[in-house]
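[agent] plan:
  1. take the single chain provided in the ticket
  2. run structure prediction with default settings
  3. attach structure tokens to the ticket
  4. add a short note for the reviewer (M.T.)
[agent] executing step 1
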Amino acid sequence: MDDLLIKLKEKYADLYANYKIENGATNFDINHFNERLTISLASLPGFDSNIIESEAYRSSLKQSFLLNDFWFVYETLLKSNNSIRNKNYDIYSIALEYESSKYKTELNNVLKESVSQLLNVSKFKLFLETLLKKCNGKLNKKIQIIIDKINSNKKFDIEDLTAITYAVRNVFVHEGRIHFKGLSISSVKDITSILLKNLKIIIYIIAISKLF
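[agent] step 2 finished; step 3 output follows
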């Protein structure tokens, strides 16, 4: 996935260097997005094994740091577009716009694979129930809806995945770690890794849709 994002970054860099945007032709800030994507792709969080001996914990922390970093890329991609920024959207729901685009098939394939992987992670429902207690307002209600979907075997949508990602990212930002009682470090790492991969693909699809 990172290879695709690197190619995307190169494409945007080339576009920014060679394409003169006529006044009013687009509201999308190409340079801002390209800069934020570059920063995230260059990020290689590491942890001293002499201080944090557990390899599993170090790996889990790395995924958490990267998830937070790529969430900034996602926000930059969306907020740099005035036509999106001026709408009254929850930041995690924007991806829904692209379900009706020509990239619907790609998004649905990403969704299907990610949901299948998440549901196979040990104690994923417990993870969501713990996450629910750490969320407030509309995000809390959204996580409850997702739990209800699992209980009634209803299908997820892209907004569900981005809402979970946003909630997990917020826990990491506010608590400095993602460590839930009753869940193994391995399970938390697996969930975070799946959400990170899914987020990168959504970033790629949305960004490509702006180019073509």
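[agent] step 4 note for reviewer: Residues 185-211 form the longest helix (27 residues).
[agent] ticket updated
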